[in-house]
Amino acid sequence: MTNAYAAHYGHNTDEWTRDIQMRCVPSLIQGLLKLPASIRALDVGCGRGDDVDYFASIYSYVVGIDICWQSEWQHVLSRRNNVRFECSDLMSLRSGPPFDLILDNGCFHHQHPDVYDAYLAAVARRMHSESSFVLLTFKDSSPHQHIDPQGRLHRYFDTKELHVLMTRLGLSVINEVDLYRIAKGDYYRLTFCRLHSCSESATSRNPR
Prior knowledge:
single chain, alpha/beta, nine-stranded mixed beta sheet
């Protein structure tokens, strides 16, 4: 997967960087959650750092991680003193204080099924009782997957399958929003989660 992403970035074929539906995700998160400026945020698979840059303009501390180092990170760092980038995957991220917000803007649906449990367990370990985990995934009523010419797996989850995965690892879905993909004619699913023990008593489907 590292080679596939490195090739995309090297040839400027990283279409997700310019995907307007994905770029609106950070502002949608803040619009729905209305998080305070004092929070710590983690962007998993941050790419060239656009979402990190957005979050750093409103939150006190933001960490961006990606398996491919990006030259654009230096530009963000030159303008923001509350940002850290790491060339790392989620499971290898060094330990530290929990995050108030963890965003996965389109990474989980490219992971091999064998690592789903380890991936989500790594998310849960980096959350506290009031943390929010937000992830964007491909959506379809019938689960299926394919591998693209660069070797990346694309998994389309149905709602039940995704919720079962979250629940198994101690995460509860508290809200979901569909984002229409103009070019594909289908949808992304934006899923808001909390640690299970912290959301059992929720009386509505709305995030905090």
